[in-house]
Amino acid sequence: MRFPTKHYHWQWRLRSDPETLWPLVTNTNRFDRDSGTPRMTAVRLSGDDRLTNARAWVRLPALGIPLEYVQEPFEWTYPHRFGVTRRYTAGPLAELRTLAELFPQPDGGTLLHYHVWMRARNLAGLVAVPLVGPLVFQRTFGRSFRDYDQMAISGQPPYIASADVKFMSGGKKRLESARRRLLDDGANPALLDQLVAAIEQGDPTALAHMRPYALADYWKADRAEVLKLCLVATRHGLLDLRWDILCPSCRGVKVSLPTLGGVSRTIHCELCHVDFNANFERSVELTFRPNPAIRTVEEGIFCVGGPQDTPHVVAQQLIPDGESRVITPTLEPGRYRLRTLRKPGGQALAVDPGGLSELTLTATEVEWPNTEPRLAITPTLHFENQSGEEQLFMLERYAWGDQAALAADVTML
Question: How far is CA 288 from the centre of its chain?
Fold first, then answer.
């Protein structure tokens, strides 16, 4: 028996603009955790005919009930909308779809619309849907959105926790002891205070991958000086370091190692279905985390595939063969590329204020055109799929973010 789909719609008026809110509300791993979603116990991105075009198979518990679902790839257009569909194979639900839309307001701020479509899989789901929707989602999602809005308004760094933090037994004493040793070793007192505050107040998920250049930018400090401070802090028991190996295609962290000894081996990216070797110039990043004797970090996965997993991708759309999609992203000047996950190469694009206001871009069975059209800052883009198979379209910035402290940077200190 097929049960009907229930649609819920809520809206919140927030004080920040969509561009400022975007990196906070689209960090779906943190959002799901903050909203009470259980930690995923298993995630698979390959090895199943269903898992094409960035689909994921997921298992997690909810109130003692095992849930399993195949997640469609997230779709988004910066900074206006993002959403996802999950089709369940175990548990009380058959399908869950969400869509968030951010509308700028004439007098400033954002009107955030949030839609949820839920369909029960069995009688238990038929009872649960009207309880989970208005009674759970509306309250918890609204609280998270308002918390993020307050973070944006106050100007506090996004790594600050939205709830009370927990130290290990004796952790605060070890933190203070490490701080004193660093001061005795000549550490900059002002920067050290900032670092200690980050450990004391930081979100446990964000602290799992502390990026020294990002910290320096938040603190308006010299990047090299902050990097050196973090390195010295590892010697005094304040921080541990990790070498994160990044996929050159999706730019996600695929392996995290305590030393460079294992970096030379070939690494496989399940999402992109490619093997690659680490490139010290571009794909080996040094990150830090608190010493576990002081604070433990949160490495659990609560959501996969959200927009902040690939922040260089400004738009992502799943388009069946023979269909099209129209989007209007907001772009920064620079060079971009449109590519699809199942088609090699891509279409180069340049963005500047004098570019085209509208353009049709088509994936076909032949190679992408060897051209570089110029686009306006807010163009209307028509994505067409004439390739003979479903394609995941991704519009991405060419430039890698410059907040990564790469292995090559460390060797030059």
Answer: 18
Instruction: Find where tokens 């500047």 sit.
Output: 352
pTM: 0.89
**Same-domain status, 252 and 123:** no
Domain presence at residue 161? no
- Estimate to the nearest angstrom the gap between the alpha carbon of 412 and the chain centroid: 30
**pLDDT at 162 (0 to 100):** 65
Residues of the chain falling short of pLDDT 70:
47, 162-163, 262-264, 280
Query: In Å, what is the CA distance from 353 to each residue of 18, 330, 376, 388?
Result: 20, 11, 5, 34
Q: Is 14 helix (H, G, I), strand (E, B) or coil?
A: strand
The torsion angles phi and psi of 246, rounded to 5 degrees, stand at -100, 135
CB 44 within 8 A of CB 57: yes
pLDDT recorded at residue 363: 98
Kindly report the backbone phi and psi dihedral angles of residue 281, in degrees, each rounded to the nearest multiple of 5, phi listed first.
-75, -30
Residue 406 within any structural domain of the chain: no
Its sign, for the CA torsion 10, 13, 15, 16, is positive
pLDDT at 264: 64
